[in-house]
Write a structure and sequence with these properties.
The complex is a heterodimer of chains A (327) and B (279).
Chain A lengths: L5 E14 L5 E14 L4 E5 L6 H8 L7 E6 L2 E2 L5 H7 E4 L3 H4 L6 H11 L6 H13 L6 H4 L8 H13 L5 E5 L7 H18 L2 E5 L3 H7 L2 E6 L2 E6 L9 H8 L6 H6 L29 H5 L5 E2 L6 E2 L13
Parallel strand pairs in A: 3-8, 3-9, 6-7, 7-8
Antiparallel strand pairs in A: 1-2, 1-4, 4-5, 9-10, 10-12, 11-12
Helix pairs in contact in A: 4-5, 5-7
Chain B lengths: L12 E12 L2 E13 L4 E5 L6 H8 L8 E10 L2 E2 L5 H7 L5 E4 L13 H7 L7 H14 L5 H5 L8 H13 L5 E5 L7 H17 L3 E6 L2 H7 L2 E6 L2 E7 H6 L4 H10 L3 H4 L6
Parallel strand pairs in B: 3-8, 3-9, 6-7, 7-8
Antiparallel strand pairs in B: 1-2, 1-4, 4-5, 9-10
Classes of the chains: A alpha/beta (327), B alpha/beta (279).
Chain lengths: 327, 279
Amino acid sequence: MTAPILMARGLVQTYPGRPTGFWSRQTIRAVDEVDLDVSEGEILAIVGESGSGKTSVARLLLNLRMPSSGTIAYRGVDLRRADKRAYRREVQAVFQDPASSLNPRMRVATALSHVAVRHGLASGADIARLIARHLRAVGLDPPENYMLRFPHQLSGGQQQRVAIARAMMLDPRVIIADEPLSSLDISVQTQLLELMKELKEKANVGFVLISHDLNAVEAIADRVVVMYRGRIVEAGRNVLAKPRHPYTRALVDARLIPDPKLARCKQRIILDGDALSSTIVGGCRFRNRCPLAVSVCAAEDPPLRPVDRDGSLAACHLVEPVANPFA
Amino acid sequence: MTGRGAAKAAPLLDVRGLKVHFSVGNTVVRAVDGVDIRVERGECVGIVGESGSGKSTLMRAVTGLLPNVAVTELSGEILFKGSDLRTLSGRDMRRMRGEDGFSMVFQDPLGYLNPTMRIGRQVAEALPPNLSRAEAKRRMYELLREAGLPDPEFVAKRYPHELSGGMRQRVAIAIALSASPALLVADEPTTALDATVQLQVLDTLKKLYRERRMALIIITHDLGLVAELCDRVYVMCRGRVVETADTVTLFDAPTNAYTARLIALSRRDGRAAGTEALA
């Protein structure tokens, strides 16, 4: 296991919320004291409901926004001092809706050649060769069939492949993918997951995969981080197989089971409301929806602490911490 | 369960040999190509397929919501309570969308809720016009509560953008229920929602169709949703129904290769499914 290439410490992102008086406004802490490490060749998944802050984290990691406080270090250098152009090159993005992240008036080849020219990757006839190679690498083969098409002439899965090819052209070390699967059919999802796995293994690319689809995440993630209202509530390698935090358990429980016999006899915890429906001050922020909440949950905000020798972390008063996780 | 006497023989909805073809440029797209579907009263039926399988077009044709601009062929019979919807006048069709008729819920409620109107008025608007103001208000609150919104007085005063996705979908369900439909068609009702909220809405739909003895058609790409909810399933691929069975049989022993692949994929069973594209 290599040292993390991307390290975030104490990330906080606040947004102005609704007014509370004539002069005052609520402050929404969309991301609240988040620490994250991303290594090369690792798929780190961030899961959570809408409003949990996962997309805000992605935007911070992509340097599309400056955090309200906290630091991001890339290869050990604080991003505020780092070479932004190198960072842009090595940390790439793939977004949810491929149709809107591709210029509708540009053919695939044109869009990709812009990247090549802007970053001086190739010139002249080499550009076409470079583009062809990358299209083939993401499974658009033969590339000639796709290069002259406009985005609307491609299916959703093909569009997403073009977006991945564009990201891969710069030979990035990390790709931040914000819900790259959610608008796609399940067979296409499976293919893209395979592609990500392949890129991870062959090109040693690290992925930050943001998703609400636990089944997809479970299939490929090396490590999973569960977020709730801006906080990391659980993190580790076996989070989905062995959830400890009641919120993670509820999320795992909420997966629909494609088997009628199992689905209908399963006893589930159905959470009330959603992550955004109320604001709570002090204590654990999950307590109003938590089926297990006790009095200490209202009094103290649980810290994220080691709960297993495999390095899993959880932020819940009811999960026993391990005293010396590395013993 | 199916109703009285003679009505027992005839299903609530009986679609026979429905074809919907569009012209796109010079080619004809056979979006729906000879589909038969039967739904009994009080039954929950799933229509599954990937994007482009024709599942939404099918139900849009049935509910009369098809834009007729590019439609080159629309044939077959759509019998609802015995009368062919395709031959009805605009006025009779409107009646079909009322009491004991059918109504719809779509994927994105924000797209069809009026952004400038408070929720309460939008729900009340769908109620029969002859009700008194007080009675309409009472029914409106009742509908919102039935759709799983525990605080209807609060919700009724909001605008659509002030509600979460799950709440908006519940408002859409309340509006759909206002005419006490015999059939509710839900097109990807939970796709845009979080897993936890999806489960809540699922629970509400389950309760509603049992309590109201309403027939429910769920159009979805998600086999999990079908497994949880439906009595019977139609699997669509490229405009045709490739398999139909009751839910348990379909999942236990799919007879069609496409269905089997779809089930394996949804269980993330990579080896059984292979990785090449389906359709």
